[in-house]
Write a structure and sequence with these properties.
Elements lengths: L12 E5 L12 H10 L5 E3 L12 H14 L2 E5 L10 H10 L5 E4 L8 H9 L4 E2 L2 H12 L11
Parallel strand pairs: 1-2, 1-3, 3-4, 4-5
């Protein structure tokens, strides 16, 4: 048992949300995200919703349960949506985004050329979530937000 008392530091974490390739021929964007987080000096946990060997698996129900738990416990959920309608349509990503957009812990990023992103971008802005068009900028903002473990509220002076 490890008790965490009021105002003690919490373990900071980032969930890498976004489309996962289903075809092994399509490379995942997450290895680059991990490299960037390391370069940015992030020293917390990173929830990666893919197998450690990057191979697809058939444990759908367990995957869903794991993702729900990780999404709920993450300090920040960094959405990177390099949507490609043929190889990574990001349909589950749309649902997860909609469920979390009001959480206050979401950062949205996507390449400017990614199709079908206008609605998510408008929804993000409506709820005060930052929007970026570069993976590194998206992750830089996610890391910065983990440095505010109790939210964005400042202590009364």
């Amino acid at each position: 048992m490890t008790p965490i008392f009021a105002l003690q530091p919490l373990i900071k974490s980032i969930f890498l949300a976004g489309p996962t390739p289903r075809d092994p021929a399509t490379p995942s964007w997450r290895p680059e995200a991990l490299r960037l987080l390391q370069a940015l000096g992030f020293d917390g946990q990173v929830f990666v919703p893919e197998a450690a060997d990057w191979a697809p698996h058939n444990h759908y129900d367990d995957q869903i349960q794991w993702e729900w738990e990780a999404l709920n416990s993450a300090t920040v959920v960094a959405f990177w949506v390099p949507r490609d309608l043929a190889t990574m349509p990001a349909l589950t990503t749309n649902v997860e985004f909609g469920l979390l957009v009001q959480s206050g812990k979401l950062v949205l990023g996507y390449p400017s050329a990614a199709p079908k992103m206008k609605y998510l971008a408008r929804l993000a802005k409506r709820h005060g979530a930052p929007v970026f068009h570069d993976l590194e900028a998206t992750l830089r903002e996610a890391v910065e937000r983990t440095r505010r473990p109790f939210g964005t509220h400042q202590a009364d002076e």
